[in-house]
Design a protein that fits this description.
The protein is built from 14 helices and no strands. With 347 residues, the protein is mainly α. The protein has a domain of 238 residues. Helix 1 packs parallel to helix 11 and helix 5 packs antiparallel against helix 8. The longest helix is centred in the middle third of the chain and has 35 residues. The protein is globular.
Length: 347
């Protein structure tokens, strides 16, 4: 167990170094390139959206003293002013609504290619990210679904799928709203376009969840069946964490590109905000799991609802980290724009 914990720490550190190196390169490349003028609204629009700390209302000049304030405090102020904690709470609620119908669909589809009794064991691969109580809640729910019988699953498959898709789409719509707020924009997309994007991101999230499940649970199970040296098996198993970090980075880049409404956005593989979101999500998940395991008393406080509360908090923390990453990118873009403006506007 000690060797495994040490290996997990090393793999997490390696993943962090890889992400930060890519973020550093990407940031340097962006600063030396041409500014993306489409990313910035006019000064009047920004002022109307309460972004006084970045610009003034008389021609787009930058408030230099405000720009020199502690960057971390500015991000905290942005998150607080935009009420992103409330947005994250809404996403967590819809994510919980989508989760359990999705489990029923997963069991039904999994039974087409393998023994559904094994899915509860496969999901244990998320034990390094999920708090133990939340993981037990999921495994118990999966076992109950499996024991209920496959005929019931076939009848309820379409209903569960529709409920899960609707709830997940609602969660993605809330994320889209939060990201748009972070960039000081007003969503001008039509109702049809908004829902089409939300549905597309939802389906993409399902694919991401499947790939993450394979990386976390499928790879170790496959390696255990292959004859090889124990050190090589351990090395390959630890390699899943950098892979997962890169998957999270890619998913975050997709969200930051397509979810918020922005004028002529450009694709960027990685930013400081997405790097923060990916690493902070992995770190927050591990720390939250450690805290719940060793220090918390949710069961004593919430009784049988303790596992549900923990799962909700895990969703909330992950969403808040994602939205905070967007605030970081938005603030950096404002500062980059300020550094590229003519000197006369800084007087």
């Amino acid at each position: 167990m000690a060797d495994r914990d040490l290996g997990d720490r090393w793999s997490t550190a390696i993943a962090a170094l890889v992400v930060l190196a890519i973020a550093r390169y990407s940031r340097t490349h962006q600063r030396t390139g041409q500014p993306n003028e489409g990313l910035y609204r006019s000064s009047a629009q920004i002022d109307n959206d309460r972004d006084e700390h970045a610009r003034t209302a008389d021609g787009g000049s930058i408030d230099i003293p405000e720009r020199r304030r502690n960057f971390n405090l500015v991000i905290i102020e942005r998150v607080s002013r935009d009420n992103l904690t409330l947005v994250a709470a809404g996403v967590a609620f819809y994510a919980l609504l989508a989760l359990f119908p999705a489990l029923g669909v997963t069991v039904s589809l999994y039974g087409l290619i393998a023994d559904p009794d094994q899915i509860a064991h496969q999901i244990e691969g998320f034990g390094d990210l999920l708090p133990p109580e939340a993981l037990k809640l999921l495994t118990d729910a999966l076992q109950s679904i499996v024991q209920a019988g496959s005929s019931k699953h076939d009848i309820a498959l379409i209903t569960s799928l529709l409920v899960s898709l609707w709830s997940a789409k609602a969660a993605l719509s809330s994320i889209m709203t939060g990201l748009t707020i972070a960039y000081r924009q007003t969503d001008e997309r039509s109702f049809v376009v908004q829902n089409a994007i939300a549905l597309g991101l939802t389906l993409g999230g399902i694919v991401f969840a499947i790939v993450a499940l394979v990386a976390l649970a499928g790879i170790p199970a496959l390696l255990s069946l292959m004859p090889m040296d124990d050190r090589l098996r351990t090395l390959l198993a630890l390699g899943r964490w950098p892979v997962l970090a890169m998957l999270v980075l890619f998913a975050t880049a997709v969200l930051y590109r397509f979810a918020p409404y922005r004028t002529e956005p450009k694709w960027r593989w990685i930013t400081w905000g997405s790097a923060f979101a990916a690493l902070a999500w992995l770190a927050a998940s591990a720390l939250f799991s450690f805290y719940v395991t060793h220090f918390s008393s949710y069961d004593a406080t919430y009784g049988s609802l303790g596992a549900v509360v923990i799962l909700l908090l895990w969703f909330w923390v992950g969403t808040l980290v994602l939205l905070a990453g967007a605030e970081i990118d938005a603030e950096l873009e404002v500062r980059d724009k300020a550094s590229l403006e003519p000197a006369k506007s800084l007087r």
